[in-house]
Amino acid sequence: MAEVIDSMLDLMRRLPPTRTEENVGSLVGICPEEADELLQSVDQPLQVMVDRATGREYLACDYNRDGESYRSPWSNEYDPPLDDGAVPSSRMRKLEIQANEAFDTYREMYYEGGVSSVYLWDPEDASGGNFAGVVVLKKTMTPASALEPSGSWDSIHVFETVERGRQAHYKLTSTVMLHLITRKGSESDSKVPADKKGTENWKRDGEVSLSGSMTRQTEQDWPLNDASSHISNIGKMIEEMEIKMRNLLQEVYFGKTRDIVYDLRSVDDLEKARRQKELQKELVGFIKR
Amino acid sequence: MDATDRIRAASQFLLQSPPGEINDVLNDIRNIISDDELLQEGIQPALREYNIEQFTVVDVPDTNHQSIISEAARVGPSHSESEERFLDPRSKTSFIFDHLSLEASDPQPIESVEEHEPFRAALEAASLSYLKAHFTDGVASVFSPKEGTNLFVLQLVANKYNPTNFWSGRWRSEYTIDLTTKQVSGRILINVHYYEQGNVQLATTHTVSFELPPGAVSTPPSTTSSKILALIEDEEGKYQVSLNETYQDMGEKTFKGLRRALPLTRQKLDWDKVMGYKLGAELSGSKSVLPSP
């Protein structure tokens, strides 16, 4: 029998991505002892919070959580406030501030909106320059009217680094969650002229929802000049990864799922095509004779 | 969580199963709940609901065809029987359906309602040729009106399961046809699951209602049925093509609007400069960190 956590992860890979939070909640209810591992392994939509000190938005996820509170990357404060909340060492915090500024620029350049946050944590073994962190980005598009398409993009990039002299080795695990929804109503139909008798009696309604997540990993070595080299190294890796994943998402969302629909049903008449093929065969045979 | 809550959660998971993956979901649940005795009894209602909702197909005993498990196919249980039965109108048999093994048993002949049968049979014939023209693995069932109603029900389902390539898909359509009011109303539901190193799902709903053209119902059953199926063929074809437009819309508007392929500069970021901007901004005390556009 597989480990319970493996079955939970397999289940989460099958159930609708639109209901991830609800389903993770149920699993935690069934097996509270697996909660920590499950919450660490299943990526959930990022929550936008507002820093009480600076008024700036930041993202809440499992990586800046301590109990029920979340730490803001801007003020380093927990909300709701915690007296003994875990914070990075001053060396790590300095790098974290720099990283948040850099990825704020990255966010503006690629997302032209949205929210970004970077959280770093100190290594368990404090001897080397090894550390880990997460870069999260989120953008939501809310429709102006009910029939406008809406959507959201959540990126979660978790990285670990090991310094090796003047080089650093990075391991990056990236997940992008993408939800797209379009609603169609009868009113869009009224624009179509009633060219056929009875057409004005047709009523249509519907919704198309494309949602999900994809995860990819990469490991790379980059040169190291000083501590801030880590930020540009990780920045380049994440930028490259997001470009790759955006292409991949485009291919799967708009290519693969569409192809499967066309595998289920053919717009063209298959019977006609079959008959035509037979006719062609006959003709070829006739010519050969 | 007590037993009732655990069964409720397990049932919710089952009802969310993607096409062709209910056994995988069930296996996961068995390992997570780890109480087969509790599950065995408890999940029966959910399995039944799933099969009815999803138009599960079943091999009809003593025939070479499949029929659809659905609310329209449900008969009884009558007073003389204790078990629920399902109907295959094509072979005019009813059977007991096992919601876990998905097998039919105890086939019994049933008598069709004489008044409705000619039209039902004609609609079935037209549906089967429509199915052949547009679906590779489709099943269709056409039901006569249930007692006390005027509604013929046409259902079709097409499934494609490809676990080796990590995808599956299901197309369901249902139309109710009222010959008295000449009203047809239908719905098309598509579900696609793509799960290679990820979990991406397409879920669509489309409802449509229309009135049959005048004179359409006064013709012989076969003519009326062909006309109805021609309208359905047209609608489903148009819907499929319109999905392409929706895809394009989502790609052009939403997807691009969420994240650009490249920055406005059409170049990747110069990360050394990105760090520099910040430094410069800090030195000059300016709040803006971006070069002016």
Describe the structure.
The complex is a heterodimer of chains A (289) and B (293). Chain A has 289 residues and is α+β, with helices and mostly antiparallel strands. Chain A is 37% helix and 30% strand. Chain A folds into two domains: 1-42; 46-186 and 204-281, F-actin capping protein, beta subunit (Aspartate Aminotransferase, domain 1), CATH 3.90.1150. Chain A has six helices and ten strands; from the N terminus they run αααβββββαβββββαα. Chain A has a five-stranded antiparallel β-sheet. Chain A has a three-stranded antiparallel β-sheet with strand order 3-4-5, with no helix packed on it. Chain A starts with a helix and ends with a helix. With 293 residues, chain B is of the alpha+beta class. Chain B is 38% helix and 27% strand. Chain B has seven helices and eleven strands. In chain B, helix 1 runs antiparallel to helix 2 (22-33), helix 1 (3-15) runs parallel beside helix 4 (44-53) and helix 5 crosses helix 6 (221-258). Classes of the chains: A alpha+beta (289), B alpha+beta (293). Chains A and B meet through helix 1, helix 2, helix 4, strand 8 and strand 9 of A and helix 1, helix 2, helix 5, strand 8 and strand 9 of B. Chain A: Belongs to the F-actin-capping protein beta subunit family.
Quick gist of this model?
Chain A has six helices and ten strands. Chain A has 289 residues and is of the alpha+beta class.
Key traits:
heterodimer; A: about 290 residues; alpha+beta; Aspartate Aminotransferase, domain 1; 2 domains; 5-stranded antiparallel beta sheet; 3-stranded antiparallel beta sheet; B: about 290 residues; Ribosomal protein S3 C-terminal domain; 3 domains; 7 helices; disordered C terminus
